[in-house]
Amino acid sequence: MDAGTDIEVLYPSPGTAVVECTGEHDMTTRDDVDRLLGLLVTENDLVVIDISQARFIDSSFVNNVLKADRLAGQLDKTLRLQIGTTPIVRRVLEISGIVGKLDCVESRDDALRPVSAG
User: Fold this and answer.
1) Three-class SS of residue 13?
2) How far apart are CA 108 and CA 67, in angstroms?
3) Which of 29, 34, 68, 118 is the most buried (most CB within 10 A)?
4) How far apart are CA 61 and CA 24, in angstroms?
5) Residue 48 to residues 3, 66, 112, Cα–Cα distance (Å)
6) pLDDT tens digits along 107-117
7) Tens-digit pLDDT profile for residues 84-114
8) How many CB atoms within 10 Å of residue 83?
């Protein structure tokens, strides 16, 4: 990825992946993020996308998250978005309406809660 952009994938338990996105995520990281999220959703039961420490996201990143969420639904997997308080990131989420569409949480504990059967 480009300098200044950081993505780290953690595996806190079997079948669970956490994608920690710090830095800036826009058109320059779109294709890499798209591939990574698709792979993680395919291989895990729960994928958490943590943008609580991201400095910037744009519509291409939001689109990748929505695409991963659709894939998760098709595969009967769960995707959660861990959000924070960075004003510019929160504004992009508000404008896009993504908070009302996805399972959004504000803490890692909430993000890793067991997936409800049903």
Assistant:
1) strand
2) 22
3) 68
4) 10
5) 23, 13, 8
6) 999 999 987 75
7) 878 888 888 888 988 889 999 999 999 999 8
8) 22
